[in-house]
Amino acid sequence: MDLASSAGFEFNVQVLPITVAALMTPKWIAPRLEIPAGTTRIVIPGYCDGDLQPLLDVTDLPLAVGPKDLRDLPNLFDQQKKPANLDQWTIEIIAEINHAPRLKLKQIVEMATSLAADGADWIDIGCEPNGCWSNVADTVKALKDLGLRVSIDSLNPQEIGPAVQAGAELVLSVNATNREAAPDWGVPVVVIPDDIAQLESLEPTIEFLTNAHIPLRIDPVLEPIGLGFAASLERYLLARKRWPDAEMMMGIGNLTELTDVDSCGVNFLLLGICQELNINSVLTTQVINWARSSVRECDLARRMVHYAVHHQVPPKNLSNELVTLRDSRLVHFAAGQLADLAAQIKDSNYRIFAQDDEIHLLGAGHHLHDRDPFVIFDQLAQTHPANLSPSHAFYLGYEMSKALTSLTLGKQYTQDESLEWGHLTEAEKNRHRLQRRFRTRSNQEDP
């Protein structure tokens, strides 16, 4: 009623002879649809899958598939702003394959292909300190043959030279130890300090490369927390002031790989700093397990921070793809609504909800609730339900475990739907349990 008043429309609800909306199809609805005079728009439940043509054959009115949760209906009536366009970005992602000389070529190719699919613009071949890899040229060529852009991360000219000849287009890293060889390579390079703590130690190498007309990117080097992190951030700020027009790079893996925290928020914050400082490339890696999706996180983050800086708005309500642990919002039933719903249920299907720090199991004659799924299942078993087959018991256990996870983390639980993990979400395709319930019920007409 409040929505109708605020959005300015009148409505009519048609109740069809079925108790589970997710079992309806457009073909089943079409012959049962009764359209009141004056109707200007028809909305069917969000769980109603299938070809809409049977409904379009019986009415010329505009037809919409509503949300899966009725409480999200305001979105259908433009009560929220349209999603932001996140197609633009300026930050390149350089994804490093660490300790490449220790890997087989097949492994490197598989890793590079996966990194590129996640959003990496460059594949960086990370070499070993104090070593000289004899297979570096073959590796670079194999990646170039796949159409990938390749950089080489080494201080050793004897590795860098063959890599560049094989097609590497960027060299990480150059300082006083190897800058004399840079004019022979003929590709852009990344300049690092001779002394990480001294920003001034960048100047001789920058001057040498500039005079040699070699394109460069400046990386003052990000240090881990506890080893000078704040001071290293300051050096990036000072470098941007000192060289306002220079290309810059930030190696963000020093923070994500060396901090006991999920990488998602760390990556976003660092990409935000880069966007504001016009640092247009980041070097990242995915070695430690908590950073295993860093490239994908950076790809999403660079779009959001570009939008935020370009439009001068906070990066809020732009996308839920990086909200992985918890959900952006929770939708609850008002007090007493679950009890009212339980009293109205006449069929033997079970409905599961997560509300008020408890799991609720509703069915005909049942409203069981507790935080512990085992307690609820014991309570249900004591009623000797006729429909508690092994497969049904497995299904209820699976759903209640999802409900408990949602309570623990502060996520939205919806029965027969996957929990939302942002860009990590894996949809529960086909809703197998719903299909099985439909096939086994005998008290409703076959749609």
Structural key phrases:
single chain; 447 residues; alpha/beta; TIM Barrel; 3 domains; eight-stranded parallel β-barrel; 13 strands; 35% helix; 13% strand; disordered C terminus
What would you note in describing this structure?
The chain has 447 residues and is of the alpha/beta class. It has three domains: 2-77, no CATH class; 92-311, TIM Barrel (Alpha-Beta Barrel); 337-440, no CATH class. It has helices spanning 2-7, 26-29, 53-56, 105-118, 136-145, 157-165, 182-185, 203-211, 229-242, 253-256, 263-276, 294-311, 337-344, 373-381, 390-409, 432-440, and strands at 42-44, 63-65, 92-97, 122-126, 150-153, 170-174, 189-191, 216-218, 247-251, 281-284, 351-355, 358-363, 366-370. The strands form three sheets. The chain has an eight-stranded parallel barrel with strand order 3-4-5-6-7-8-9-10, surrounded by six helices. Strand 1, helix 3 and strand 2 form a beta-alpha-beta unit. It is elongated and about 85 Å long. The protein starts with a helix and ends in a 7-residue tail after the last helix.
Going across the biggest sheet, name each strand in turn.
3-4-5-6-7-8-9-10
Oligomeric composition of the shown chains: single chain
Helix content range of the residues, please? Answer: 25-40%
Major sheet description: 8 strands, parallel, barrel
CATH structural class of the largest domain:
Alpha Beta
Overall domain count: 3
